Amino acid sequence: MMTMQEFTEEVAQSSFLSHEEVANMYIGYNSNFKACNIRFPSKPRSEPAQDAVFRCRRFESTALDPKSKGRSPQQSTVKFMVNQPISFKGVALFPGSVQFTTQSFAIELRDKDGSLLMSHKANIIKRDSFSHDIVFPRSVTLKSEAAYSIVVSTEDVPERYGEGLKKKVICEDVEFEFLEDIKGEETDKGHIPELLFQPLQDSTQYTALETKV
């Protein structure tokens, strides 16, 4: 039987469970599994490695923004590059500060010249979760050592923000380098906590073009 410490150190920080499932595991553990909002599947979750989606986490931790309800909506931008080609799948975003509403997101992925690689709109029903995964309808292959930017627009203000912005993150042997200035208020910068991606095994055959999943 896995201990909760092992669960925290291994499973909770992987991409194997959704954020909602991780939260419900802690709730269930502390309530003898009488207060979970979802049922956990009884069948094995094993899946082919090539289908696994990984998470690049940009922050050391997250926190509630006590002034979120008094802020005006604004765009959030992340600029980054990778050291090897990846299949870019989407982003994880913090929910808005308004309770029990549907939140609309508009997401753009652009290259260093400003050319649009992906534009996606999503409507998310807010749930009791730290973040929401927004998966693109098609993956986008990104080249190594090239700068890209993600711009997220929403009419709501995120209720959480990231603390401890990382300049470099290594995940599944892929190094992400974030190019934005780390100075300034964290509450203005920490609205896109995770990038969703897959490493590409054969890097010689890919370019930064949209590819079907």
UniProtKB/TrEMBL annotation:
The lineage of its organism: Eukaryota, Metazoa, Cnidaria, Anthozoa, Hexacorallia. It comes from the Eukaryota. Residues 58-198 form the PHR domain. InterPro entries: PHR, PHR_sf. This is BTB/POZ domain-containing protein 6. Coiled coil: none annotated.
